[in-house]
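Course assignment 3, question 2. Fill in each field.
Student: A.L.
Task: Predict the tertiary structure for the chain below.
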Amino acid sequence: MTFANPAFLLLLLLIPAIGFWYYYRRRERYATLRMPSLQGIQGVQSIRGRLRALLPLLRIFAVIALILALARPQKILQEEEVKAEGIDIALVMDLSSSMLAQDFQPNRLEVSKRVASDFVDKREYDRIGLVVFSGEAFTQCPLTVDHAVVKTFLSQLECGVLEDGTAIGLGLATAVNRLKESEATSKVVILLTDGVNNTGYQSPKLAAQIAQKFGIKVYTIGVGTMGETLAPVSRRSDGKFHFDIAKVEIDEDLLREIADMTGGQYFRATDEASLENIYDSIDQLEKTEIEVTSFRRYSEMFHRFALFGLIFLLLELILRYSVLRAIP
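Answer field:
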């Protein structure tokens, strides 16, 4: 809320002066009756007498409300018109069982989901889609500006829902297929994996060549510490994974080659902090100029304050000269 005539608010400084004037003149408004002793009526006060003492407050409230009405309070109704040639981004997330490795806390997948969700929040005007892969790949969420939907799908990702494996080529090809018809100024794939391509009928390099043909830039992220970590090594009959110490293997040469072929970059995330920095770097690299035109509409509210002021004033006058009338 704002005020069209804020100078009138200075009149509120008169309120203490009005209160002092009422206090100073109170004896002149009441008749004086001399009595030899007050012992018989000491502490006696009627309800009318107590209520009458509140009459000056009604007048003060009326003055305050009328001053606020003069200042013309207005409620701002702001609208935004955005004209932007945005960026279409496909997040490609590895769901192979190795993403449950515990070198990230609680595991690689949960950290990747959380950091990717924060990244989505920063891309206010972009269309974002989600592709998942392990031994096979599919589009979890098509390109959309409804980022709440994207974040919902991200939060629901789980390992084990697809055939296990690491089909990097299939994941990338699925994302390229989603972006190839896009008319956005910039088309970007962010491919996150923690392994080596070991299955799938689509070659990762061929998928990268197709991405290059359609002007799609691919940023690749290898997730995992150096050395060994506690990771799933097999799956029991009840569907639960058996964990043991395993070597961290990421085909960095392939991921770097995919990024270089398409004009992107390769990053290695060895902990949650480095993964956050990687997404921040991509966020800074993929910027586009956005033209935003703001419109402001105002809703006048002074009539409400004027109405309350008149009500307070009228109530004070009615009570003063009727129910709470003083006998001269």
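Instructor remarks: The chain has two domains: 2-30+46-77+297-320, 86-287. The chain has a mean pLDDT of 85.
Grade: pending
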